[in-house]
Amino acid sequence: MTEEADVVVIGMGPGGEDLAGRLANVGLAVIAVESRLVGGECPYFACVPTKMMVRAADALGEARRVPELAGQTTVRPDWTPVANRIRDEATTGWNDEIAVRRFEDTGGRLVRGVGRITAPGEVTVDGQVFRARRAIVLNPGTDPVVPSIDGLADTPYWTNRDAVPATQAPKSLLVLGGGPVGLEFAQVFARFGTAVTVLEMQPRLLAVAEPEASEVVTAALRAEGIEAHTGCAVNRVKHDEQFQAQLETGDVLTAERLLVATGRRTDLRALGVAAVGLDEGARTIPVDDRMRAADGVWAIGDVTGHGAFTHTSMYQARIAAADILGQGTEVADYRAMPSVIFTDPEVATVGLTESRARQRDIQVRTATTPLPSSTRGWIHKVGNEGIIKLVADARRGVLIGATVVAPAGGEVLGALAVAVHAEVPVRRLREMIFAYPTFHRAIEAALDELDA
Ligand SMILES: Cc1cc2nc3c(=O)[nH]c(=O)nc-3n(C[C@H](O)[C@H](O)[C@H](O)COP(=O)(O)OP(=O)(O)OC[C@H]3O[C@@H](n4cnc5c(N)ncnc54)[C@H](O)[C@@H]3O)c2cc1C
Ligand SMILES: NC(=O)c1ccc[n+]([C@@H]2O[C@H](COP(=O)([O-])OP(=O)(O)OC[C@H]3O[C@@H](n4cnc5c(N)ncnc54)[C@H](O)[C@@H]3O)[C@@H](O)[C@H]2O)c1
């Protein structure tokens, strides 16, 4: 029997959940299809539990800084409170009952299973056909990429979905991939006593960040005892009692666990996008500035390729929901897309990096100021590593990008995100009063540098 609704949502990630609830709340008949957990990757295997890990690891990191500032401490890390907090507070035992109830209370209907577009306006879940009168919305998210390294597939490697539920910190860990996922986990486990080695194939860690940011973070991680190999290819992986990773150089590294953190992938073929004329071999679904992907089809979240962040997914959900309701006045504008990598120091970015700006033939001016020599950085002392880098469009006299590497760098970024978003003229920023002695006051030094 075919069932009809106004809107069928495939995938209840942060954006899908938000959009489905918004539309059901205003009286549309909404069917949401979810194959795993309502809420998606973020609350169960990504942002939320990993930031609980980071919070705990940062407490250990700060405690270890006490001898340089305030006397003596003895730090004996214990993973149990972290594992318990993730199980009980973050994920309620990887159970989505609360999220399901929240959605059903809006009047929406949840269907468990894998959804596939089988014709325009038609979604099939385990043989049951649903017709969407107004919209199909795709929010399928991504899965971890597992590189085709000889032997790897036959080993009990971890991805983020295994590392988050870990009940103890491993004795040793090889991390494949030096991007945000790899580095956040690397530092967390290292601070809990795990001997961590990061293997990154690009010439530097955080290869898409500003090189100055990579440099500071790499030095900070190495200073904590994390081994980082860059420009490094793994040829073969074996597992008996331990993991063994053979590098191109012939060296063999061993560890109790191996975490694959080499990026994310989509499977558009499985989603059946060809049925609505979309390229099923593509890596992302192209959308216009109202998230329209095809006639009667909207896509939101990681799958659109506009930044794999929860805030992207939720931003796009708001715009798509308004468009579906015919009330869309807002169009997507990604110029001031922020992101924060929660290492210590945090790496916070908004807008364009210098190299991205140059690729666009913008007349670029940049300025970089070191944080340790700012008043607050000097007072902070141990743990004060960082920089602020500004990227300006010299012709227009506005900032188009910024990177903050600092303790609480994500919070410092707020001011610069406003500047990029609202295109505040640089000369107007120069007239601001920056509170003394804050980390964000270093923005003033960077602006001075930009003027010089
Ligand atoms: C370890 C880690 C840490 C991260 N930390 C942060 C962070 O601190 N801040 C941040 O902003 N971002 C972070 N991210 C990224 C963030 O998790 C994602 O950007 C976010 O989850 C948004 O994804 P999404 O909305 O595209 O969908 P997802 O959250 O991936 O959810 C998609 C849902 O769709 C379901 N689904 C897929 N296909 C189908 C189908 N055919 N039928 C039915 N259901 C389907 C899936 O089961 C899933 O539940 C992190 C990612 C990782 C891996
Ligand atoms: N705090 C945050 O906002 C946050 C945190 C984690 C993840 N995320 C999001 O999740 C997405 C995925 O993150 P990620 O770190 O998995 O992916 P990524 O693509 O950002 O980084 C993966 C890294 O692995 C390297 N790599 C790939 N294959 C390799 C191999 N065979 N050997 C060694 N290195 C290899 C790549 O060169 C790259 O540097 C990111 O795009 C990010 O937006 C966000």
Structure description:
FAD binds at residues 51, 115, 302. GO terms for molecular function: flavin adenine dinucleotide binding; NAD(P)H dehydrogenase (quinone) activity. Belongs to the class-I pyridine nucleotide-disulfide oxidoreductase family. Its cofactor is FAD. NAD(+) binds at residues 177-184, 200, 263. This protein has 15 helices and 22 strands. Helices cover 31% and strands 25% of the residues. The chain is an alpha/beta fold. The mean pLDDT is 98. It is globular. Strands 1, 2, 3, 4, 5, 6, 16 and 17 form an 8-stranded mixed beta sheet that branches. Helix 8 links the parallel strand 9 and strand 10 (227-229). Helix 3 (47-63) packs across helix 7 (180-191). It folds into 3 domains: 2-39 and 96-142 and 266-324, FAD/NAD(P)-binding domain (3-Layer(bba) Sandwich), CATH 3.50.50.60; 152-262, FAD/NAD(P)-binding domain (3-Layer(bba) Sandwich), CATH 3.50.50; 338-451, FAD/NAD-linked reductase, C-terminal dimerisation domain (Enolase-like, domain 1, 2-Layer Sandwich), CATH 3.30.390.30. Flavin-adenine dinucleotide binds at residues 10-15, 33-37, 40-42, 46-47, 50-51, 114-115, 139-142, 160, 181, 271, 301-303, 308-311, 313.
